[in-house]
Amino acid sequence: MSRMLCPADLNELSAALTRMTERSRIIAGGTDLTIAIMEGKIAPDLLVNVLDVKEMRAIDFTAERVAIGGAAPFCELAASEQVRAKLSALADAASTVGSKQIRSRGTIAGNIGSGSPAGDMLPVLLLYGATLSVADADGTVSEIPFRSTLGDKGLVPLGKGRAIVSVNFPLPEERRISAFLKLGSRRAVTISKLGVALSFRCAGAGAPIEKPVVTLGAIARVPIFAKRAAAALDGRPLAAETAAAFGEALARDVEEAIPSRPSMPYKRRAALGVAEDVFMKIMPRAAA
Q1: Domain(s) of CATH 3.30.390.50: residues in the chain
Q2: Which class in CATH covers the domain with range 176-287?
Q3: Chain centroid to CA 282: how far?
Q4: Nearest in space to 209 (alpha carbons), one of 180, 181, 182, 241
């Protein structure tokens, strides 16, 4: 049976991290970890429960960025007016993770820590250029780019005795808008089969799209940039007719990312529809 430690602040967290072994795990919402334990896939000797670490529950805005506590549940991100206004794609993704019950427990750090290629947060983190504030057993907290954790075989584990204290997002420049949309096998409570995150600058309907960024999730082992799709948007007007060119380019990005995978034809076709839907979702935000 696993032992459990429940630190209340970063000092107690550091002390708990020193006691972790290779078998130990950090737990917050436990939406994935609990299932793995119940199914006998892992047998931790120690669980470090971070739900009560006050520094990991906050959502802090400054003039330059927002720090999302690693143990802040998805429901709080989805409900935050500031998050919806400044980081719309993040709020979109948080509002579509699993069921209402999962969103009340699941956390952004857990979505990273699970290492699933289908994690809804991952393409959004790449879209915004997020960083991770990581606590070590020696009491230090360092900041690393999320992008640096993207390996050839999946997300690179942080290693024993480390915990994600917060996930940090630079606040967007003026007139930059964003959106996220995913496709699953069902209309609700679904694991993503394709996730698209989109961001660009635009002065309003009919104005040219500037500095577009597009990322894809649930395609490769880690989220990727959809460079053809971004190029197809650059300089085009924010208008319904642009969606078709965006969709065709996104489909080519999918084809190039997984050319030999059996699911490629399905995901290529799906990209056409998801691209149109996410583009129509973001258009009204330019006028807000």
Answers
A1: 176-287
A2: alpha beta
A3: 18
A4: 241
The CATH class, in words, for 55-170 is alpha beta
Q: Model's pTM, two decimal places?
A: 0.93
166 pLDDT above the threshold of 90? yes
Judge whether 76 and 82 are in contact, CB under 8 Å. Answer: no
Rounded CA gap, 17 and 73, in Å? 22
Give me the mean pLDDT over the 15-30 stretch. Answer: 93
Judging by beta carbons within 10 Å of its beta carbon (0-12, 13-18, 19+), is residue 185 exposed, middle or buried? exposed
Q: Encoding tokens for residue 7?
A: 């630190």
CA 214, 157, 76, 101 torsion: positive or negative?
positive
Residue 147 CA to residue 167 CA, distance in Å, equals 12
Q: What gap in Å lies between CA 229 and CA 214, rounded to an integer?
A: 7
Would you call 216 helix, strand, or coil by DSSP?
Answer: strand
